[in-house]
Automatic annotation (TrEMBL):
Residues annotated for L-histidine binding in this entry: E83, G84, T85, R113, Q127, E131, R257, Y261, Y262
InterPro entries reported for this sequence: aa-tRNA-synth_II (IPR006195), aa-tRNA-synth_II/BPL/LPL (IPR045864), Anticodon-bd_dom_sf (IPR036621), His-tRNA-ligase (IPR015807), HisRS-like_core (IPR041715), HisRS/HisZ (IPR004516)
PANTHER family per the UniProt record, alphabetical: HISTIDINE--TRNA LIGASE, MITOCHONDRIAL-RELATED, HISTIDYL-TRNA SYNTHETASE
UniProt organism field: Acidiferrobacter thiooxydans
Protein name: Histidine--tRNA ligase
Top-level enzyme category: ligase
């Protein structure tokens, strides 16, 4: 059989021009992780399905209809991870990271959800998550939020920060009753998803993306009326801290994360246009989850960045890495070109060689497209020409033996002009 094989819907490769942008964003994020004392954890992509059923919750979009679940050859039900927090907690418990220790962790990588693909919504997408464990007060929430704000500021992304508090479990229980009472009184205006959630997870109804329900939800009771004194003071302190740190925010009284283990603070950043698939970073405190998954009770707060959405919003990209040298060569000089390239790499330079046997014209086009600092062209057995060195044109012809030293010198001078 021959012919082209289609990719999986909603699952796309990242082509080199996009990968360059992603890498610049990721490099910036890594530096920020270091700046806030977060350490990388690399998590599996496959987990037991029950992890998500328990951690994310049975009555959620993710578990009800979005997971890639299959039975493996040993008969175990496994799922491709739809998010990172559950796996992070599981790995932290198993690795003993939470024993009376504060931990700041980050991870990144692909997540999988069977959703309807559209702009900003894919079936394989990427998250960059940060999670902080063992810190109960509003201070760590403020610090994590400041980190999120810095991520966006550094990349020139404009988004509104929305914050709310779900209070303690008890506050939420009382709120839940009031909410169910309100929604049940307007049962005729609820869509099917919401009717189902009304029984089992009414807070998630507030999360509905259905525009027909917006007016109804805008009138729903808010949790603020059900906060305990402790919940209120926690949330007030967080707001004071954010103000002191110069982080702008808006209180969004109906912002929820409808999972049982969320407590106190929830937050998200959404760009100014209010699209359904707009949220770029979402997070909150989830003090209940570690014990829910069999660990000792442990405070936890974190967020996840939707990388596709973030990269799409970036207006200020850190400069991509520069190619130092591009080597053009005819077929008979290819071995000499390879030897020269290796010598230049030994000297610490980045080098691309053109080995397709193409015309000088097309090689030159490729060299220019790469933005190489220096372009050289093999002449014959004896010599190589430095055909273009940016500002200083026509540096002349050198022997192969002289080439590494001469080219290194020119690249060094150019790098200095570029301000490196
Ligand atoms: P949404 O409300 O957009 O469905 P969500 O509440 O399901 O998002 P979370 O589980 O909180 O999303 O995931 C955190 C972030 O991951 C989101 O804010 C978004 O930026 C990103 N994200 C979630 N699902 C997708 C997807 N299918 N494609 C691309 N990005 C996604
Ligand atoms: Mg979703």
């Amino acid at each position: 059989m021959t012919g082209q094989i289609a990719g999986v819907r909603g699952v796309a490769p990242l082509l080199p021009t996009d990968a360059v942008r992603w890498r610049a964003v990721e490099d910036g994020l890594r530096t920020l992780m270091d700046a806030y004392g977060f350490r990388e954890i690399r998590l599996p992509i496959l987990e037991r399905t029950e992890l998500y059923a328990r951690a994310v919750g049975e009555v959620t979009d993710i578990v009800e209809k979005e997971m890639y679940t299959f039975t493996d050859r040993s008969g175990d039900s496994l799922s491709l991870r739809p998010e990172g927090t559950a796996g992070c907690v599981r790995a932290g418990i198993e690795g003993g990271l939470f024993h009376n220790q504060a931990q700041r962790l980050w991870y990144q990588g692909p997540m999988f959800r069977h959703e309807r693909p559209q702009k900003g919504r894919y079936r394989q997408f990427h998250q960059w998550g940060v999670e902080a464990y063992g810190m109960a007060g509003p201070a760590i929430e403020a610090e994590v939020i400041a980190l999120g704000a810095r991520v966006l500021a550094q990349l020139g992304v404009k988004a509104r920060l929305l914050v709310n508090s779900l209070g303690t479990r008890e506050c939420r229980e009382r709120y839940r009753e009031a909410l169910v009472h309100y929604l049940a009184a307007h049962r005729d205006r609820l869509d099917d998803d919401s009717l189902r959630r009304l029984e089992r997870n009414p807070l998630r109804v507030l999360d509905s993306k259905n525009p027909d329900m917006a007016a109804l939800l805008a009138e729903a009771p808010t949790i603020a009326d059900y906060w305990s004194a402790e919940s209120r003071s926690h949330f007030v302190a967080l707001q004071d801290y954010l103000t002191a740190l110069g982080v702008a925010f808006e209180v969004a009284p109906r912002l929820v994360r409808g999972l049982d283990y969320y407590t106190h603070t929830v937050f998200e950043w959404t760009p100014h246009e209010t699209l359904a698939q707009a949220t770029v970073i979402a997070g909150g405190r989830y003090d209940g989850l570690v014990s829910e998954l069999g660990g000792a009770p442990t405070s936890a707060v974190g967020f996840a960045i939707g990388m596709e959405r973030l990269v799409a919003l970036v207006t200020r990209l850190p400069a991509p890495p520069v190619l130092d040298v591009f080597i053009m060569t005819n077929v008979s000089c290819q071995l000499r070109a390879l030897v020269l390239a290796e010598g230049l790499r030994d000297a610490g330079l980045t080098v691309e060689t053109h080995l397709a046997g193409a015309s000088a014209k097309s090689q030159m086009k490729r060299a220019r497209d790469c933005g190489a600092r220096v372009i050289v062209e093999a002449q014959d057995e004896a010599r190589v020409a430095i055909v273009q060195a940016g500002a200083a044109k026509g540096e002349g012809i050198v022997t192969w033996a002289e080439a590494v030293a001469r080219i290194s010198q020119i690249v060094g001078a150019k790098a200095k002009i570029d301000g490196e």
